[in-house]
Fold these 2 entries.
Entry 1:
Amino acid sequence: MDQLDQKQLEQLKQQQAQKEQMEEIKKSILTQILTPEAKQRLANIKLVKPEKAELIEVQLCQWAKQGKITNQLSEDELIKLLEAAEGQKKQETKVTFQRRKLSSDDDDDI
């Protein structure tokens, strides 16, 4: 029982270390590709919508690794990317309502 707990504790420590290492790599990449103003904008977004900021950070890191971002992004460029991403999200969302007819809703009674 004690060995099992120790193995689980060791695995948790390894996972935490990997997570911290990935976080450091992400911070390093973002520092290279974002101006200080853009980093501040992203930090502000992270305060309000942490999930959205995380997705943006991952996307920016992927673009940097793929070579799609060659020089630092300014705050204005980051805003344009955010607006474009928001526009795509809005286009994907569609809600339709289908009203079911009940027997009491028949127009034949009138």
Entry 2:
Amino acid sequence: MAQSVNITELSLSQLEMLKNQLDQMYVPGKLHDVEHVLIDVGTGYYVEKSADDAKDFFKRKIDFLTKQMEKIQPALQEKHAMKQAIMEMMSQKIQQLTAMGTSQAATAKA
């Protein structure tokens, strides 16, 4: 999820609130050395790489994440189907209990 914010238009209180709501905040910038970049490899570690090596790293990372998503997708679909079946069953039970309660109330009044 990317979110763009013009921080020059925000007051100090708004910036404080923004800081508390966002885990990371990105601001525009320019690279002085476009041949070497720092990339975030996770858990707070950064590695300096050439631009081509960084592109290769991100291509491999995208491929890895895509494969992982493809692996877990069937399990997620199965869990979603199970959830839907449980929700349907619960809805039927609630309707039965409501109908039973209505009929018992009518019998008690008679």
